[in-house]
Design goal:
116 residues, alpha+beta, two-stranded antiparallel ribbon, two-stranded antiparallel sheet, globular
Length: 116
């Protein structure tokens, strides 16, 4: 990687600037120095459960709102729902996908704290 590569990321789409970052988050290993973290030789695999559909609407502060509008407005790229330790919903949008490498930032801390 060159300094020019890094500058393209920081100048054209700086973090926390309001510019959507999903394209950068899926290719961070090409934009910044990084190290490979080896996966566990014995990963925890969540079994599949009974599949659910996302509700089309939800209520927030007394207002009925559209679920897919929220996912779009928040640039949600992935959503995984576990119920009783089983995957009951899994979907990806934008540049996400089950095999797409993705920067987790504080998401990893939140998941770990929920599991503890």
């Amino acid at each position: 990687m060159t300094t020019q590569d890094t500058n393209v990321f920081t100048e054209d789409a700086p973090m926390f600037s309001g510019v959507p970052q999903h394209a950068q988050f899926a290719r961070m290993q090409h934009l910044m120095p990084c190290l490979l973290m080896e996966p566990s030789p014995h990963p925890m695999v969540f079994p599949d459960g009974d599949r659910i559909a996302l509700p089309t609407t939800y209520t927030f502060e007394g207002d009925v709102r559209n679920t897919h509008a929220l996912l779009g407005a928040t640039y949600t790229s992935a959503l995984l729902v576990l119920k009783e330790g089983r995957v009951c919903f899994e979907d990806y949008w934008l540049t996400g996908g089950r095999t797409t490498q993705w920067i987790s930032m504080s998401v990893a801390k939140s998941v770990v704290s929920a599991l503890v």
